[in-house]
């Protein structure tokens, strides 16, 4: 969530902003709001950063000459991110979106130094007076994708390429597994960790290894199209993540779990312009249009699409929750006896549910 890119090019170089061509200077005395974006991977043609950049472009289109944007892509998490974020603030950006989990602490550190700048951090959980957080409830669409996988698998084994064993990724793995087993109690999900958000080589190797272990459906919580491409090559099914990746796997893709930032980015910029911006936490799902299941492939039969549509309507109505109790982990411990796992529980998730093979790596 892509082509060949020179990784980590910013480590030893000054940040060179890429100015959006569609942004034009406002009339004299009415300067546009400068908005910066920090991307963890190359924009590419699909994936996490691609979707973030679509949101940036949509914000530009909606607000016109009220805003002027710039972005820096392929920024490693850690010290490099801190330098990039600080540079954007020093250049006069008054709203900065930092779009990866590992940017959380660098964002907070820079925010203290620039109290007049507003920051929005994606997928994190720490806020400050000038730092808001946002995320999409990917797990809702993951549950629906699991239903498709459970209906389509012949081997009863699905493979999952994970980035890092953090709560956000575990929510996806566990929701996918629960969706799969809701229609196929014999289903099993196997996970291989890439330990990277974007490494097409590692992602491909992991997908091929999972297929070698009997998975006939593979999916991923990583940024590239490698998993979908591997499935296409081997004649297996795939559930894409972040973007519709059907052009990379026209026969393989069953569906795509996607996220959408257009309305949210535009609202945040408007709030800064209007002086109404607040440091808050926004976590929107299917109902709010921030997460979706789309890009159904030709292999998915109509009755499965109908079932998914019914379950999606239940999620939107609040009558179906992917993490409704009882929730038992794959070691036999009851994590939630009844009710629905709340946001605090979701953000502390550190276990595999029943149906996921293996043990969770320890940090």
Structure description:
With 363 residues, the protein is of the alpha/beta class. Helix content is 35%, strand content 20%. It is built from ten helices and 15 strands. The protein is globular and about 60 Å long.
CA gyration radius, whole angstroms: 20 Å
Counted by DSSP, the helix tally is: 10
* Proportion of beta-strand residues: 15-25%
Low-confidence stretches: 1-29
The topology string of helices and strands comes to EEHEHEHEEHEHEHEHEEHEEHEEH
Order of strands across the main sheet? 1-3-2-4-5-6-12
The proportion of residues forming helix, as a percent range, comes to 25-40%
State the secondary-structure class: alpha/beta
Task: Tell me the overall shape.
Answer: globular
What's the overall average pLDDT, rounded? 92
Main sheet record: 7 strands, mixed
Number of DSSP-assigned strands: 15
């Amino acid at each position: 969530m892509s082509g060949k890119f020179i990784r980590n090019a910013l480590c030893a170089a000054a940040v060179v902003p890429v100015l959006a061509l569609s942004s034009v200077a406002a009339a004299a005395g009415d300067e546009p709001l400068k908005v910066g974006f920090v991307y963890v991977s190359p924009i590419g043609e699909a994936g996490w950063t691609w979707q973030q950049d679509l949101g940036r472009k949509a914000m530009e289109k909606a607000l016109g000459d009220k805003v002027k944007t710039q972005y820096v892509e392929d920024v490693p998490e850690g010290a490099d991110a801190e330098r990039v974020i600080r540079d954007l603030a020093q250049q006069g950006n008054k709203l900065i979106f930092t779009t990866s989990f590992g940017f959380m602490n660098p964002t907070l550190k820079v925010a203290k130094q620039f109290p007049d700048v507003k920051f929005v951090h994606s997928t994190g959980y720490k806020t400050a007076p000038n730092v808001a957080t946002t995320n999409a409830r990917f797990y809702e669409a993951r549950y629906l994708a699991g239903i498709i996988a459970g209906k389509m698998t012949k081997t009863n084994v699905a493979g999952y390429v994970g980035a890092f064993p953090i709560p956000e990724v575990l929510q996806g793995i566990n929701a996918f597994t629960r969706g799969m087993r809701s229609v196929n109690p014999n289903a099993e999900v196997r996970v291989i960790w890439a330990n990277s958000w974007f490494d097409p080589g590692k992602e491909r190797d992991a997908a091929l290894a999972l297929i070698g272990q009997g998975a006939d459906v593979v999916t991923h919580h990583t940024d590239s199209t490698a998993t979908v491409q591997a499935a296409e090559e081997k004649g297996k099914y795939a559930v894409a993540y972040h973007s519709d990746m059907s052009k990379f796997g026209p026969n393989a893709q069953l569906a795509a779990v996607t996220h959408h930032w257009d309305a949210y980015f535009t609202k945040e910029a408007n709030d800064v312009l209007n002086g109404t911006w607040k440091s808050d936490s926004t976590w929107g799902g299917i109902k709010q249009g921030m997460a979706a299941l789309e890009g159904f492939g030709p292999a998915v039969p109509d009755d499965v699409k109908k079932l998914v549509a019914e379950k999606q309507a239940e999620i939107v109505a609040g009558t179906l929750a992917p993490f409704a109790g009882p929730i038992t982990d794959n070691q036999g411990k009851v994590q939630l006896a009844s009710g629905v796992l709340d946001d605090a529980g979701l953000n502390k998730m550190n276990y595999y549910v029943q149906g996921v093979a293996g043990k969770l790596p320890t940090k």
